[in-house]
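Record 1 of the preview.
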Amino acid sequence: MTIAKAILKAVILCGAVAVCVASGAAQVPAQSASATQAPRALSSGAFPAKVIKTLDSGKLKENDPIEVETAGSFKLADGTLVPKGSKLIGHVTAAKARSKGDPNSELTITFEKLAVTGGKQFSIKGTVQAVSPPEEQPEPLMAGKASGAAGGGYTSATVGTVTETKSGSNMESDIKPEPAKDPKSVGVHGIHDLSLEDGVLRSTGKQVKLNGGDRMIVHADIFE
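->
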C-alpha cells in the first residue's frame, strides 16, 4: 500500500467515526427531553375545602405536613368524581409568630397532592385563595317549605375545567353564594385581624390561626 492510499484510508475511517459520534450525540438530547417532559395539566380551578386540624403559625414550621379535606364534590376534566371529604395534602412554606419588632404573623401553605376518597391520587399545585369561618348550619325546613329553598340542596357550576359545588336554591339569581362555597371568592371573610395576599396569610395578632372547621377556597392546577 502506498503512503497516499494509507492516508486516504485513514481520512475515510476518521470521517465515519465522526458521523457515528455526531449521530449518537443527536439522539441523547431527544431522549432526555422526552424523559423530562412536564406533566400535562388535567384541570385548573378553585374549590372549597375545610380545615381538619388547627393551623397555628406559632406552632408550625417550614415543611411541616398539612392536610385538609374537600368541602364539596366536583368532577375533573377526565370525568373523575372528587367526592366531599377527599384529602388535600401539602406542607408549610413559611410560618412565623409575631415577635418584637414584627408587624405581622404569617402562614403560607402549598398543596401538592389530591387523594380522591376510594380512588386514585393526583399531583397538584395548589394555594389558598380565600378563607372564612365555619359554615353556618342551615335551619331545619318548616313544614310545607320547598326542599330547594334557602339552605337546601346543591347545584353544579363550572369554573375553568373543574366542576365545582356551591349552594343552590330556588332563590333569586342575584343572591350571592356564601364565601365558603363560592369558587370565585378571594381574600378573608369574617375572620378578624387576618388578611390574605398571593397565598400568604397575615395577622396583626400574635399568630395566624385557622381552627378546625374553618373554610378555604383552594385554587389548584391538577395534573395527570
